[in-house]
Amino acid sequence: MATTTSIVRSPAALLSAKVTVSDHKPTPTVQISRFPSKQPLSSSQLFNSVSNGSRLRVAYQGVRGAYSEAAAEKAYPNCEAVPCDQFDSAFQAVEKWLVDRAVLPIENSLGGSIHRNYDLLLRHSLHIVGEVKLAVQHCLLANHGVQLEDLSRVLSHPQALAQCENTLTKIGLSREAVDDTALAAKHVALHKLKDTGAVASSSAAKIYGLNILAQDIQDDCDNVTRFLILAREPIIPGIQNPFKTSIVFSLEEGPGVLFKALAIESRPLRNQPLRAADDNNGSKYFDYLFYVDFEASMAEERAQNALRHLKEFATFLRVLGSYPVDTTMM
Ligand SMILES: O=C(O)C(=O)C[C@]1(C(=O)O)C=C[C@@H](O)C=C1
């Protein structure tokens, strides 16, 4: 997959910058119509389009019809959703001012964490300014005229395949992973495949002209994916509505007690995953990063106290963002 991203060094250069954010669409010319102020966004600004009336540009990973596009549109109903071929391109598109926000999946109620995005959060310096939860209802799609018994194989995003594991096993289809669910639908349609279906959304069926053979094929009807909204600047944390704060930290000592006590997301450190133990035997143990979401705003004293305390024994601590909780699915 070809990803060509021009390195933009000054805001003026952005006006003529071209970026290929997806190789499945004609190369879009990115026009930055607005340079957001350096001021942090307030939480009330968060869900609105920009004040001069131009549409907010929101990067997502995938092609048209992907769940991530639906999540971007749920977060910002009037936005221009900009497809990116990889998660990393979406991060870069925000950093290079080619778009205003990125909306990326971070965890799913059935499939678990999307580890790649946890790693990318750390490698890039964007801020979490919101979250959006999306109910994911998968369909089994095929070309018109193709019956269920004609299929031997199904294509989809690995998370989607995992979310439909039991159903696909029952039907007896072999699985093949592709970059996103809508791309699977597009591939099946484009190549007029007769023996291969796609697990994707009903809107992907509409966009690529496929037939819906089965609906709601996920193993649990409560299949929810949580997406993070990322921006160049943090928002000013509020206290008027429920806020969440996401942090990442590492510890001097082994992960043991804290890990068990908090049951938090932990990932081996990428640059230096193993740490020598103090036992002089040359033994090593994994050095962990802990990702914690807690339900409090950084504007609250109790959150500031908790982080001050954590800072005393953490070898590394970063606040990834303090943002309003998405209460739409509660
Ligand atoms: O493939 C898509 O349509 C996506 O938007 C990606 C993705 C994911 O990464 O989890 C998003 C929501 C669903 O959980 C399945 C796939």
UniProtKB/TrEMBL annotation:
* CDD domains for this protein: ACT_CM-PDT (cd04905), PBP2_Ct-PDT_like (cd13631)
Q: Which Gene3D superfamilies match?
A: 3.30.70.260, Periplasmic binding protein-like II (3.40.190.10)
SUPFAM superfamilies in the cross-refs: ACT-like (SSF55021), Periplasmic binding protein-like II (SSF53850)
Its cellular-component GO annotations read: chloroplast stroma
Provide the leader sequence positions: none
- Entry's PANTHER family? AROGENATE DEHYDRATASE_PREPHENATE DEHYDRATASE 2, CHLOROPLASTIC, PREPHENATE DEHYDRATASE P PROTEIN
| The protein's name in its UniProt record | Arogenate dehydratase/prephenate dehydratase 2, chloroplastic-like isoform X1
